[in-house]
């Protein structure tokens, strides 16, 4: 049994890396099995002192465990129902995937194989999207958005918002990690995947957050790849290309103009009638909640109850403007969510986790460092407009992607640390 433990452990790591491309159901099963395996591995290491390996690698794992402990404590003073607090803990709890994967991936070779599984699944998702866009029948589509509109029906397993962000990240990871591929895969496949992914973001999907993320990742790549004397010209060319895209693509132009029209509409009526207006409505209400409880917040899982009560109260006070919709689940802004629930210390803790990821990325070699910092940039931007870590699937995607690249650290624990030698097991 002990000899089979490394095989099961690594299989579950690869399963999680693949599952994140295929929807919530499979990633949920993979996470459960992964957490059970982690408990078995930790128990085995604890019972065998000569086989122990450190759980906490760098600052990231320690801060994540601290953040989860604070979120668990926040449930004790939550003003929301107990069910909401428990659900919020589960949603926030996906952060545990990062230290768990870092604990279970025991060698650089395993990290590379798991990253290849992750990339292969994302490439399959990308290819399926292009086939669907070209009108080729795809039997494995499960997205609920299919058929709801012309521009958002190309998601395969999730929503256009999630998949467009995942595709933008895939472009960066494929480009920066190309040196890990052999021969022609390095010179042909990786650039092709990056270009097809970027084209998919801008031409197929309508996610404005993904537009911003893709542009930021391209700018970062320019800063890293080109000599300083060429960076200014390349930046001007990038802005010209983006401007041309806005002018020539009716879909991109419409989505960009909707931001301005939505904001103006909200300013005039005070009623959220668009995606942009709804976000402003959620953000302003969240700021009022923070102002009322700046030090300790209202507790884990309390945002929905507190905000919807505030929305009803505001509607009663200003009936002429019409009652804004209630029933919101989160503020569509990760930083505000942590601040409402845990106060300003919660915001500082979340920022500390992001800074720890950046700090630990600096210990990696150049390709992995650039890939991880690209994922981190995408996460930070996504969290400005959505609860990217709190939401299902996209949060799992970011946690797994960050962990797999971070596992490429040079000091990865050898496999022997978790598996006994034949002589010992005998």
Looking at this protein, list some descriptive labels.
single chain, 426 residues, mainly alpha, 70% helix, globular, disordered C terminus
Write a structural description.
There is one protein chain. This protein is 70% helix and 0% strand. It is mainly alpha-helical. It has a domain at 5-57 and 105-248 and 362-425. Helix 7 packs antiparallel against helix 8 (183-204) and helix 14 runs antiparallel to helix 15 (366-385). The protein is globular. The model is unreliable at 317-324 and 412-426 (pLDDT under 50).
Shape: globular
Mean pLDDT equals 84
N-to-C CA distance? 11 Å
Major sheet size, sense and barrel closure: none
Q: How many helices does DSSP assign?
A: 17
What letter string, H or E per element, gives the SSE order? Answer: HHHHHHHHHHHHHHHHH
Q: What low-confidence regions span 5 or more consecutive residues with pLDDT below 50?
A: 317-324, 412-426
Instruction: State which percent range the strand residues make up.
Output: under 5%
What is the helical fraction, as a range of percent? 55-70%
Radius of gyration over all CA atoms, rounded: 23 Å
Quantity of strands, as a count: 0
Structural class: mainly alpha
Furnish the topology, listing elements before pairings.
Layout: H1 5-19, H2 24-47, H3 58-74, H4 82-92, H5 97-104, H6 108-133, H7 160-176, H8 183-204, H9 208-225, H10 228-248, H11 250-269, H12 275-292, H13 303-317, H14 334-361, H15 366-385, H16 394-406, H17 422-425
Helix pairs in contact: 1-2, 1-6, 2-5, 3-14, 5-16, 6-7, 6-8, 7-8, 7-9, 7-15, 9-10, 9-15, 10-11, 11-12, 12-13, 12-14, 14-15, 15-16
């Amino acid at each position: 049994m002990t000899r089979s433990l490394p095989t099961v452990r690594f299989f579950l790591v690869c399963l999680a890396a693949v599952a994140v491309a295929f929807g919530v159901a499979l990633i949920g099963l993979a996470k459960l099995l992964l957490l059970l395996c982690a408990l078995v591995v930790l128990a085995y290491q604890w019972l065998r002192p000569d086989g122990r390996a450190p759980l906490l690698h760098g600052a990231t794992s320690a801060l994540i465990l601290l953040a989860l402990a604070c979120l668990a404590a926040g449930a004790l003073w939550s003003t929301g129902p107990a069910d909401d607090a428990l659900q919020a803990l589960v949603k926030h709890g996906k952060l545990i995937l990062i230290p768990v994967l870092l604990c279970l991936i025991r060698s650089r070779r395993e990290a590379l194989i798991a990253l290849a599984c992750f990339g292969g699944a994302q490439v399959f998702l990308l290819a399926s999207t292009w086939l669907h866009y070209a009108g080729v029948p795809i039997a494995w589509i499960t997205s609920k958005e299919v058929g709801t509109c012309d521009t958002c029906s190309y998601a395969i397993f999730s929503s256009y918002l999630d998949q467009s962000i995942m595709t933008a990240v895939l472009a960066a990871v494929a480009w920066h990690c190309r040196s890990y591929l052999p021969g022609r895969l390095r010179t042909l496949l990786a650039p092709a995947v990056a270009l097809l992914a970027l084209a998919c973001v801008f031409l197929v999907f309508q996610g404005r957050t993904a537009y911003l993320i893709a542009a930021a990742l391209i700018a970062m790549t320019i800063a890293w790849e080109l000599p300083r004397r060429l960076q200014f010209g390349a930046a001007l060319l990038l802005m010209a290309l983006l401007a041309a895209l806005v002018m020539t693509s009716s879909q991109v132009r419409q989505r960009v103009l909707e931001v301005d029209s939505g904001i103006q509409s909200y300013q005039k009526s005070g009623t959220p009638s668009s995606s942009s207006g709804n976000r402003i409505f959620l953000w302003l209400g969240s700021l009022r909640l923070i102002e009322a409880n700046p030090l300790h917040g209202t507790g884990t899982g309390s945002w929905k109850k507190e905000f919807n009560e505030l929305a009803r109260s505001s509607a009663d006070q200003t009936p002429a403007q019409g009652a804004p919709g209630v029933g919101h689940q989160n503020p569509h802004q990760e930083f505000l969510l942590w601040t409402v629930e845990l106060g300003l210390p919660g915001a500082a803790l979340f920022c500390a986790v992001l800074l720890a990821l950046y700090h630990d990325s600096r210990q990696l070699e150049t390709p992995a460092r650039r890939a991880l910092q690209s994922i981190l940039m995408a996460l930070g931007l996504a969290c400005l407009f959505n609860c990217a870590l709190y939401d299902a699937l996209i949060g799992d995607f970011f946690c797994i992607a960050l962990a797999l690249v971070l596992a490429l650290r040079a000091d990865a624990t050898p496999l022997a640390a978790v598996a006994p030698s034949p002589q010992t097991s005998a």
